[in-house]
Amino acid sequence: MAAVDYQAEIRLLRSTLESISQVTDLGALRSRIAELNEQAASPNLWDDPEAAQVVTSTLSHQQSELDRIESMGQRIDDLEVLVEMAAEEAMGSADGAAALAEAEVELGGIRKDLGELEVRTLLAGEYDSREALVTIRAEAGGVDAADFAEMLLRMYLRWAERHGYPAEVYDTSYAEEAGIKSATFRVAAPYAYGTLSVEQGTHRLVRISPFDNQGRRQTSFAGVEVLPDVKETDHIEIPEGDLRVDVFRSSGPGGQSVNTTDSAVRLTHIPTGTVVSCQNEKSQLQNKAAAMRVLQAKLLERARKERQAELDALKADDSGSWGNQMRSYVLHPYQMVKDLRTEHEVGNTSGVFDGEIDDFLESGIRWRRQQDKATAS
Predict the structure, then answer these.
(1) Nearest-CA neighbor of 23 among 126, 123, 133, 125?
(2) What is the mean pLDDT of the chain?
(3) Count of CB atoms within 10 A of residue 193's CB?
(4) d(Cα 41, Cα 43) in Å, to the nearest integer?
(5) Which domains are assigned to the chain?
(6) E-strand spans in 229-360?
(7) Between 67 and 229, where is the model more confident?
(8) Which helix (H) or strand (E) holds 49?
(9) What is the pLDDT of residues 25-61, one digit of tens each?
(10) Nearest to 328 by CA among 343, 338, 318, 315
């Protein structure tokens, strides 16, 4: 076995960490954490429990992200000290061998953790930072497909549990004999959508069916759909330059003038052409405030419809592999889980079904980035 060039490895680790720090923009991250800490310290925070939950959850995850990156530098420093200690020990001594063995284990751990941090920097899509809504559906394969869909549901929920991500099952439709027809759940963690979106597609299971009294091998399929959890906003900012305000004299039945002053207000949202007016109130300021409330409501509804159209487009996006086989889980005649896009495979099928899918997620994210680069060029 070739000796490890620890100095070269440490230089590579430092270079990778520097790249991650630059892409993450630690200064901006610290500023965001400071803002969230200020919001969290407000005595009125819990007047709006839903907003407070968002603040505290976001603060927790972003602080954790900063701590992971900052602690990584210390771990690399400690590794370098460990290597130096091993080198100072007498050649072949027990202490030197033990220090070297410890350094080798720590090197592997740092590589793995840095790889996870590096993958996070690849999640730069518009929706990647959002929480995720995941739907699993049994497809071809009868009762085996329904059972497989339930196995996948457990796999993703166990993955979320392993990482401490809150997961909430919204809806489950159970099959008659066993398993589920479909299930939808939400993973409430930053970047859950960007991470899990590479799971979208058709998953295939090959095994001896536990539901076949003749013990025959069965192939069954389940579909996974992943969407960003889009939050409803309660306010839309309208820049002054996007708004035209016209005032006119209120009129009543038969065209008669109700007021002798120009108190009625017409608002035009220039980018969308949305027009609202109000003339019921006595003052121009009151009419403008009422018209603004109506305009806000119209723009909120417009934004909701646009978001829905974007989600529908994501469902139909071929790059998401929806309707295409993307992973095979083989339990017979051998045991293997293989991603058909990245070629990544493992033999520990029980571990995968117990939520050990991080390597698949990482390879999928890297593969998608390569595909995006190839398309761009």
Answers:
(1) 123
(2) 84
(3) 25
(4) 6
(5) 6-121 (1.20.58.410), 132-232+319-376 (3.30.70.1660), 240-312 (3.30.160.20)
(6) 243-248, 264-269, 274-278, 325-330, 336-339, 345-346
(7) 67
(8) helix 49-88
(9) 888 889 989 999 999 999 988 888 877 877 887 888 7
(10) 338
